[in-house]
User: What shape does this take?
Amino acid sequence: YNIVPFIIEDTKKAFYYRGLKEYERERGYLVDTCYDGQDTMRRLLDFFQIFGHSFEEST
Assistant: This one.
């Protein structure tokens, strides 16, 4: 399915919690934080060559 999981780093937990708190009013906070976590995961997967291909430009 080519779905990339995401990591919420300790340094970004405050943004994640704000996104959860404000989700009904402003969904973009949480969505953007999760996208950022996916970007982090993509870089790790690419660096370690996991899955044998690059996730660059595949989403």
Summary: Residues 19 and 31 are 8 Å apart (CA to CA). The chain has one domain: 10-52.
